[in-house]
Give the backbone structure.
Amino acid sequence: MSKARVKVPKKAKKGEIITIKTLVKHKMQRATKDKKTGEPIPRNIIHTFEAAFNGKTFLKGNWDTGVSANPYCAFTHRVQESGEYTFTWKDDKGETYTASAKIEVA
């Protein structure tokens, strides 16, 4: 099962502004100490979110510790042609989560 989910309309009219919703399952662990050992637990948060359409980035965000666990992000985009959206999240451990969705424009 994928850790990332996206909701993009399957169809739209040329020039229409659509709403895109994304969610990625992630703890967003800020730096703390282990309660039993006192050893530091390093921060592991998603620090970068990127949205692209047909390979061209149109939205990029740098996140910090103020973002909650399992970050949800909704935004709008004007579509001019059919294609594919790709979404990428990157965390402090070097893991990358991706999701994609196609849209048909009439």
